[in-house]
Amino acid sequence: MTHIRLPGYESPVLINSILWMEGEANYTRIHHVDGCVSLVTKPLNYFTSFAGLVRVHRSAIVNSVYVHRLAYTKGRWGWVYLVNGKVVAVSRTYLPLLISLFPHGPIEEAM
Fold first, then answer.
1. Nearest-angstrom CA–CA distance, 27 and 44
2. Which residue numbers delimit the HTH LytTR-type domain (predicted)?
3. Could you give the 3-state DSSP secondary structure of residue 23?
4. pTM, entire model
């Protein structure tokens, strides 16, 4: 599936146009690649089933296509650096998943 139907949008939105998302109660703030930000009436959990979108924190999802690198500290917590320079926190719950998604990718262990 390459598109998402969002409430309030007449046409579907391309998944690759989404950079990352942040949850705000039952709303989700969507940050697009072009810099636009939209707020939709869907909880963050709704978007976890779409390919390429990876949950990194209780309140954040990133598009794996736009992950520049992953940094972490001995399995405690980490950070995802996106291609636009945005840094999104990774909780220890989701850190093992991210490390497995980028086995040969841009991972660095911070001290």
1. 7
2. 12-104
3. strand
4. 0.88
